[in-house]
Amino acid sequence: MAKEKKVAFITGGNRGIGLETARQLGKGDGIKVVIGSRDLGKGQAVAKELRADGADVDVIRFDITKPADYKEAYDYFDKNYGKLDILINNAGVSKETFMAPNNTSTVTQAVLRETFDTNFFGTIELTQVLLPLIKKAPEGRIVNLSSILGSLTLHADPDSPIYGAKALAYDASKAALNAFTVHLAHELRDTKIKVNSAHPGWVKTDMGTDAAPMELPDGAKTSVQLATLASDGPTGGYFHMGEALPW
């Protein structure tokens, strides 16, 4: 009997790092990838391309800013698979310019709230909704797409490479997401579910711009590594390409 495939859900998986993560996971052995795309038509188009490239991929319409979509995603995975092995919380937003002068004293409440609604509150609520399905998987994996810009240690260090990159709404949302990783991993410490934060690197995407030094295939590697951790792998950590980052 063929081994039952693992099922992975990638939010914001129709472009950028999420799309490349879907490609790499879907071409791996024994993983069915479902992409969450706000525009179903665009999602279906990229899923067709990934399937032509040998990846086992499907797509559902999903918008992290719409809580009603969380229940629809739950119903989809419950009906079709009865479980969820891998959740990659990839969807994210930035409303600021990373290398602009520090605007902490003037950043608007609207920017703060929109950023946190997507990067923090939406991610937590979705994870809570899907967690019962992840608990039904033999060994669940939750990957939260953070950023090195969420590291308070590095932000406070004048010698760190990110010291001058202060974008309060985005940075604070990723620091908060890291806290969620630590807390959820602790709650689930006696289960086979592993929860980790991933820093993909500075990658050539719409958010990262063409100035970024990393290409998409490398930008997806950390998510793929954490999504496919062995049973003796870490949980409650913050990683880039297998290396732990300071909180």
UniProtKB/TrEMBL annotation:
Domain of life from the UniProt record: Bacteria
Annotated family: Belongs to the short-chain dehydrogenases/reductases (SDR) family.
Name of this chain's protein: SDR family oxidoreductase
Keywords associated with the record: NADP, Oxidoreductase
Entry GO MF terms: oxidoreductase activity, acting on the CH-OH group of donors, NAD or NADP as acceptor
SUPFAM superfamilies per the UniProt record, alphabetical: NAD(P)-binding Rossmann-fold domains
Record-linked PANTHER family: CARBONYL REDUCTASE 1-RELATED, CHAIN DEHYDROGENASE FAMILY PROTEIN, PUTATIVE (AFU_ORTHOLOGUE AFUA_3G15350)-RELATED
Keyword flag Oxidoreductase: yes
